[in-house]
Amino acid sequence: MELVQLLGAVVGGYLLGCIPSAYWLVRWTTGQDIRRCGTGSVGAANAYEVTGRPWVGVVVALADILKGYAAVQLAHLLGGTAEFRALATAAVMVVIGHNYNLFLGWAGGRGLAPAAGSLIAISWLPLLLWCLLWLTGYAAIRRNVHVGNMAGTIGTPILIATAPEPLVRLLLQVPCPSILQHTLFVVALAFPIFLRHLQPIRELFRQEEP
């Protein structure tokens, strides 16, 4: 039964992540393929940049947050003894599905919105730390969105690994049998986001080369 629950979390999370809200909305409003416009990212920021309409970016962001939250709730319905592992697996898979969409030729977004949605359902502390580190990276290192994103994505797992267990458990939304499982979950969630931000960071460095 435990294996069935985890497989359900893997498949359900990935398929929810593959719902291409940015692709659909940009296609509907402009007729363009978002994969071939702007940065090519299938996410809220690029949807706004391509269409020039703030409401498009907001709707896409909310839809992507919702699918991250929905993936965790779907896994929660599976229940059982492996509940936290099922929830964490679904959260990671929804980000992977968003970032590497099988139905869009493996194109996708950068994973921030679905990750935020899953963290709202599982654990608030990583989300709060990510926002704080984003502001720090953006203001202190360089006023660039991708630099802020990378600062949050790299720094959050490190801070979570060193955070006091009572603080972590205080902001947990679901039971977690081991604080190590929570730490590994945050690391796994950050990894596909980190991978998707390598390209814009490389492009930023190239632009600064003489």
Task: Summarize this entry quickly.
The protein has 210 residues and is an all-alpha fold.
Note the main attributes of this structure:
210 residues; mainly alpha; 10 helices; globular
What does this structure look like?
This protein is an all-alpha fold. The chain has one domain. It is 76% helix and 0% strand. The chain is built from ten helices and no strands. It is globular, with a radius of gyration of 17 Å. The N and C termini lie far apart (59 Å). The model has no long low-confidence stretch (mean pLDDT 92).
Distance between the termini: 59 Å
Average pLDDT taken over every residue: 92
Which stretches of 5+ consecutive residues score pLDDT under 50? Answer: none
Q: H/E element string?
A: HHHHHHHHHH
How many helical elements?
10
Helix content: over 70%
Going by helix content, strand content and strand pairing, the class is mainly alpha
Largest sheet descriptor: none
Q: Beta fraction of the residues?
A: under 5%
Number of domains: 1
Number of extended strands: 0
From the alpha-carbon coordinates, what is the Rg to the nearest angstrom? 17 Å
Write the layout of secondary structure elements.
Elements: H1 2-17, H2 21-30, H3 44-51, H4 54-78, H5 83-99, H6 112-122, H7 124-141, H8 145-162, H9 165-170, H10 179-208
Helix pairs in contact: 1-4, 1-5, 2-3, 2-4, 3-4, 4-5, 4-6, 5-6, 5-10, 6-7, 7-8, 8-10
